[in-house]
Amino acid sequence: MAAPKKGRRAPSGQGKPGRTLALLLIVMAALVGGMFWSGETTPRLGIDLAGGTTITLKAEPEAGKESAVNPTNMNTAVGIIDRRVNGLGVSEAEVQTQGDENIIVNIPKGTNSEQAKKQVGTTARLYFRPVLTVAAGGPVTPEPAQSGTPSVKPSAAPSAKPGSSTPKANAPSGQPSAQGRAVTDALKAPSPGPSGSPSAKASTAPSAKPGATPSTPPPTPSASDAALQKKFTEVNCLDPKQRANVAKGTKPEDTIVACGQNGAGQWDKYLLGPAEVDGKDVDGAEGVLDAQRGIWKVNMDFTSSGSKKFAAITSKLSQQQSPMNQFAIVLDGDVVSAPSVSSTLSGSAEITGNFTQQSAQDLGNILSYGALPLTFKTETVTTVSPALGGEQLKAGLLAGAIGLALVVIYLLAYYRGLSIVALLSLLVSAILTYALMSLLGPAIGFALNLPAVCGAIVAIGITADSFIVYFERIRDEIREGRTLRPAVERAWPRARRTILVSDFVSFLAAAVLFIVTVGKVQGFAFTLGLTTVLDVVVVFFFTKPLMTLLARTKFFASGHPWSGLDPKRLGAKPPLRRSRRTSAPVDPKEA
Questions:
Q1: What does the pLDDT look like over 11-26, one tens digit per residue?
Q2: Cα-only R_g, the chain
Q3: Which of 122, 215, 285, 373 can bridge 73 by disulfide, Cβ–Cβ 3.0-4.6 Å?
Q4: Are 282 and 302 in contact, with CB atoms under 8 Å apart?
Q5: CA angle at 226 for the pair 220 and 227, rounded to the nearest 5°
Q6: Contact 338, 260 (CB under 8 A)
Q7: Does residue 161 surpass a pLDDT of 50?
Q8: In whole angstroms, what is the distance from residue 305 CA to residue 216 CA?
Q9: Cis peptide, bond prior to residue 323, ω within 30 of zero
């Protein structure tokens, strides 16, 4: 008979409550140990508590494309900026539109926040353009000529490298355009059109000496050709302001002047032909370390259509001499890299240059998440002080402390000894919540903001409610005349159903709120959902086993007045077993 009894007791949980408590304590020790091992001993704070930077971006449409600033493009830009910042691991960055043409970006202080500031407004318009000529980055002062307008010699020698040639002013304005000949040789460009490309019909007559009068007047170059020559000669790529504006306002089909750093870290200026491949043709990009060469680079994979375009341009360039066998990778008007081509390429490409690990990964991140559909200007950059948030946090914590104190007073006054179980359960829940919040910061980017603190305070009531439900079920069983040990076990199934239903409703509300809202409200929903799950864990793995153990102690089992389970105070009926065994009294007269 002993074996069947043991088999019946096991499901009730009376048999091994100590093992359950030990398991929970091991989990708690592992979480707290992981918190200290990772160095994340405090939860990450959001921008309203830790401070940070607020950036206001204003959309600037291109000339003639004012309609591009529309809700669709603005929402697309918000999504791209948000993915870029989150791709860097910045916690709780907020990106949202304000009005019709502004985007507000809130970046809290923390890991990679500085990189995020640089990327939020980067348009990331990527083009692959053929190199027509290249020269040192400084300006050139032309020698006196008959018309005063210099022309630039192309660096067409096979041994030429970016930055090795120097522009010379050696011809009058009537001299044919050197850039025009380069375009003709490299891409068979047509006559000047709306794009402003240099003429393909430029004469190849020898240039005259400075100040000399040519015997036969050469053809006069177009205005766009002359302006392009003048811009290439005069631009100073050593000046950051000129670098920022040299390619501003250009179109993909234009021949442009751009600046870029060569392998030695010096600035060069480039004359580049129309774009042959667009950044939209890039399928993915990643910054990686080239172990053989010991440099950081960016690997790119093209789409099927992009691969065909890339094969076509590299096929053309591979037949040219340096520097016209180079293609420039131009990002937002800057030449990131200008590799040479010796054979037809397709499918993938790599960008090399003066990359650090951070810059290579940043560029890969930008290219992977795509180009912004609009150009944005940084209107304001404001540093947010955490002072206001700190005051609100103190007020919120004070309110939470007052509420917790009232709960404790109520538990002590009403439940007496049972309040020890409730307080220990609240303490275990607090330790688990704090450890998980600290670990979730580096794991998923969770950051504690003011709404999240409110969610944690609300969770105190939810957790305390679960204990009260269980305690009242136990008291109901004692009122029915049962002793404490069977009352604890018989009350558990009924209390368990009520607790699970209540926590399920709370978790469902938190999940819906998290899905349908954005920004800081999601912090409230996430914290509420997390603490609701922890409430179930604490009640099942701590409160119930602890009550089973306490029911075996004399203080609680005997119904001590300070135990909170005194049968007299609860108005308990006589014990059920005694009432069943007592027979009805016999009338003496009948006897």
A1: 444 558 889 999 999 9
A2: 38
A3: 373
A4: yes
A5: 155
A6: yes
A7: no
A8: 49
A9: yes
CA–CA separation, 404 and 412 (whole Å)? 12
Amino acid letter, residue 118: K
The residue with tokens 């989150």 is: 86
User: Which pTM does this prediction carry?
Assistant: 0.54
d(CA 80, CA 376): 13
Instruction: State the Cα–Cα distance between residues 242 and 390, nearest whole angstrom.
Output: 43
Q: What are phi and psi of 259, to 5 degrees?
A: -115, 155
Contacts of 286 (CB under 8 A, 6+ apart): 298, 299, 364, 368
SS3 271: strand
Burial state string for 547-585 with b = 16 or more CB within 10 A and e = fewer than 16: bbebbeeeebbebeeebbbbbeeeebeeeeeeeeeeeee
Q: Which residues contact 459 (CB under 8 A, 6 or more apart)?
A: 429, 433, 527, 528, 531, 532, 534, 535
β-strand pairing of 256-261 with 334-337: parallel
Q: Report the mean per-residue pLDDT for the chain.
A: 74
What sign for the dihedral angle of Cα 46, 50, 53, 56?
A: positive
Tokens describing residue 516 = 């349908």
Distance between CA 91 and CA 83 in Å, rounded? 12
Both structure tokens of 152: 């630039």
Q: Which residues contact 330 (CB under 8 A, 6 or more apart)?
A: 126, 127, 128, 129, 247, 258, 272, 275, 336
Most distant CA pair in the chain: distance in Å?
158
**Could you give phi then psi for residue 95, rounded to 5 degrees?**
-130, 120
Alpha helices, H only, 349-386: 357-369
SS3 sequence, 385-428?
A: CCHHHHHHHHHHHHHHHHHHHHHHHHHHHHHCCHHHHHHHHHHH
pLDDT tens digit string along 403-417?
Answer: 888 888 888 888 888
97 close to 80: Cβ distance less than 8 angstroms: no
- What's the token pair of residue 20? 């359950």
